[in-house]
Amino acid sequence: MKLWGGRFQQETDGRMDDFHSSIHFDCRLYREDIEGSIAHATMLGECRIIAQNEAQVICQGLKEILAEIEAGKVEFDPGAEDIHMNIEKLLTERIGPVGGKLHTGRSRNDQVALDLRLYLKRQIRVIQGQILTLQEALVERAEANFDLIMPGYTHLQRAQPILFAHHMLAYFEMFQRDYERLSDCFRRTDVLPLGAGALAGTTFPIRRERVAELLGFSAIAQNSLDAVSDRDFAIDFLAAASLIMVHLSRLGEEIVLWSSQEFGFVELSDSFSTGSSIMPQKKNPDVAELVRGKTGRVMGDLVGLLTVLKGIPLAYNKDLQEDKESIFDAADTLQGCLGIFAPMLSTMKVRGQVTKNAAGGFALATDLADFLAKRGLPFRQAHEVIGKLVYYCIQEQKELEELTGEELANFSPLFDEEALNLLSPEASVGLRDHTGGTAPNQVVRQLERAKGLIAKARQDLDR
Fold this sequence. Notes:
The chain is mainly α. It has helices at residues 14-20, 23-26, 30-46, 52-70, 83-95, 108-144, 164-189, 208-215, 224-229, 232-258, 286-309, 323-346, 352-359, 365-374, 379-396, 405-409, 417-420, 425-431, 440-462, and strands at residues 149-154, 157-163, 191-192, 219-220, 266-267, 349-350.
């Protein structure tokens, strides 16, 4: 007999049981479900809605069930549909009819919303810790290769010289925003839905504030309809997770390019590379490629849940059962990618001479245009002069660094010997000395800021 089967005269079809059941995936919410039930039962006892000794028996039974689940001694019953009904069934078998009092003043609708919020609060903090580890790896790579110069790119064409450290810290900034987005997501997830009942609240004199205190929620949902049907917090998480994966994928794509023979900028550790079953010479950047591929999976989780939500009326609808697998998959995928990416990055070797050689040549052209502009020539005219100079070099098969003062003067009388001092990657990098620039002393400031943000975030997570 189903726990909800009082008005039914026929047993559900076995096919219906299989299709309807969610225990095969929501079983992972057992800890959150039990913690929420303990808090709810404690409040029921304190408010004298049930006897205090009954609340104590319920809480003790739930704690024992939790211990047995974690010891691998519990086999969930698909016939009980979901984790909520499975726990209640186990409890009633253990302590008798008093177990049926646990569900007083609540519904599965507010119960599942609670479990999902508790789960996501934990996952967000785990992921934030992983982001900090990745940021630490980026800072370490930046410091270890601080003097290395590489070409910065636009349109995947060499553009201007930058410090390799500057490039690493660009990704630090991306992941810093990701960290902050998760903090914002945590704040909106940290809202207690329990007490909303099925949709309209409950007739029992509950104390929602007490449940929030016991479970560590900082706020309480203010509308019962919204409390049971809201999944905005889940969308927030999936959107944040998708953007983190996009950032990982962008860095992964660069590592794939950089580790190719065509670029040759980096070499990945053997520990985080694979070979070919047929080509003995191959060393493949599979971690970066897999992360790049899994990004689409997490983005799909986001689109899937958005599609579920777009057409359902208030309040709860069974469609919302589809939220959990998207959330579980995104959380698992993201944690797996973050967990492998940081050590791959930490063990990556950078070939400084290769990156420096690539940073010269026509990547210095903007500095010559800036030189003419500083001497009074309108920048647009300076741009044209240097464009013609570059064309001359192409025709003569020369690099800009190989030009003489006489050759420069042929293109503009404003050029003098000082212009020749600009024609090195080191000089180019050093000139960009302003907040956010790639000059070495500015990058030192960026590194100090990055380390300060990591230290503060670590302290916040440890509280």
